[in-house]
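Appendix B, record 7
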Amino acid sequence: MENLYKLDGKVPILKAILFGLKHILAMFVANLSPITLIGLASSLKQTEIAFLLQNAMFIAGIVTLIQLYPIWKIGSRLPIVMSVNFNFVAILTYVGATYGYASAMDAVLIGGLIEGCLGLLARY
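Structure tokens (predicted):
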């Protein structure tokens, strides 16, 4: 049981499978809900929402692997599930319903660029 709390500890296979299933279920709910809410509010077709959901799951899997197996200084070597964020669901559903899905994605891109620039300016 002590191995569960070590960075490179070995977990018994049965517990590893159960922990993996828990991570998968957490990832599904966190990924599917925000995209579905914003897509429905933006009046997207079911096929478009399905396409967005598939892409979100694919990218979340890649980023989760990068967290587990770091590349250079990016990643924590911990099984951290990375997924879509709920923080901006309310405003994006409003923007999507009022101005369309393209405007909501424009807002996401502009906000990401601003956040990236602020991150470059921040020094600890």
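Remarks on this record: The first helix runs from residue 13 to 41. Helices lie at 13-41, 46-68, 89-99, 101-121.
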